[in-house]
Each structure stands twice: as C-alpha cells, then as structure tokens.
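Request: Not sure, any thoughts?
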Amino acid sequence: MKLSKAQTIARQILAILAPYCTEIQIAGSVRRQKAEPKDIELVYVSDVTTVQSDLFGAVDEFALIERGIATLLVHEICRRDEGLRRWGPRYKRLIHCESGAAVELFAAQADNWGYILALRTGPHEFNKLWACHPWHGGCLPTEITLRDGHLWRDGRVLETPTEAAFFTAVGLPCWPAEERTPERLQAYLKERSR
C-alpha cells in the first residue's frame, strides 16, 4: 500500500487507542516513511487501572489498552489475524478490515519505551547491527545484553525512557527514523573506528 494510505490508517488506529495509553507512537516502515509499507506498527505504553479480582479484596492491574483494542474489533475497524495468530501481552496482530493491512501492536513500559520504539522502528538490517555484539558482526557494547525487553549492564536494567537514552546507552547517535539505514550505520562505525 502507498505511504499516504498507511499513514491514514495508522493515525486512525492511534486516535482510537491513544486515550488508553500513556505513550503511543507509529513505528516501523510508516515511521521511516517508506514509499510502500507492508504493515502498520504501533508501540504503546498502556494506561492501567486496578480492579478488585476476588471477594477478599485482592486487586489486579488491568491494561486499559484492551478497551481500545475492543473498540477496534467491535466497530470492525480491525479484526484479529486468524492466519498468523499473535495475541500475547506484548504483541498483538490484527488486520485492518477495509485495506487488509496487518496492524501490529507492541507493548512497552515507561522504563523501556526508547528501546522498544527503536527496535520496532527498524529496519531489520539496521537493528541487527546494533543488537549484536562485535563477535557477531554488530556494535552492541560488550558489557550490555538485551533480555526481556530491556538493556542490561552488570545485572541491572538500564532504563531507556526515550530513544535518545537508548541510543546513548548503546553508543550511537539518535538519527531521525527515516535516516536509519544499515548503510548509514556501517559508514558511521567505519568512521568511528578510525
């Protein structure tokens, strides 16, 4: 589909989900302004509410994003993807009813927002360079590991509340999304090693 159509769909879905989120942003190839995106990706931090879960006063947190997703389904803006079933707590895949485009929703938390947004913005080959250690052909600092949706150093989570914080942690500039290409990163790494 053309970028303009993908942007329209992404903005429509974002507008429906935004009231249920503390953060939400379009990611993926739409954010990178690729001419013909194949899917629509959004990253969000759900707002939460507490609900009493039993007669003894125990409470559970309820992710309000579920209400926004229910709105998308009830109003037939999107439907669950029955071909590629992904419906977990961190990743949900839907199909936009009118266009047939895949819509992928990725959950983040306030402390890993920057990491998840950068990861889901991509592109894949760019991500492979920063997500791998040098012995695997990447540039991830050797003291950092990626696990459970977070960066880790010395057994502790490194908070990445913004993309700038994430890229600083991995020792890279925070380029605009449309400038994130493997070629640019390779050129930067080559220049940095001189």
The radius of gyration is 18 Å. The domain at 3-107 is CATH 3.30.460.10 (Beta Polymerase; domain 2). Residues 3-17 form the longest helix (15 residues).
